[in-house]
Amino acid sequence: MQGELFIDYMLKNTGVENPTKLFPPSSKATIRETLTAVKDANNPSIRLECVVYYLLSWWAGASHDNFYLNKRIPSGFTELTHAYYLFDSGDYVVWVST
After folding, report:
1. Residues 6/87, Cβ–Cβ less than 8 Å
2. Is residue 63 in some structural domain?
3. pLDDT 10s per residue in the chain (98 long)?
């Protein structure tokens, strides 16, 4: 994973070609394009939900909390996905120190 973000790895594993074209999202249209690509790859719902959770963390701040509660995503998946987000965004330093 040299020079890649965790989200690049996540998107590659969902079958999305050229994930660096889709992330970071520059608009809501790019987010929709990313979600459509993941959904069209016929992934298990948990994989799609983790990508959505990550994108909501990146784009919409705290709305990812409501999403995972409504979808009832197991905590292990959300914690790992959130850790990926924190490392990718560089926010892990603040999170670890609190």
Report:
1. yes
2. yes
3. 567 888 888 888 888 888 888 777 788 888 888 888 888 877 778 888 888 888 888 776 666 667 777 778 888 888 888 888 888 888 766 655 55
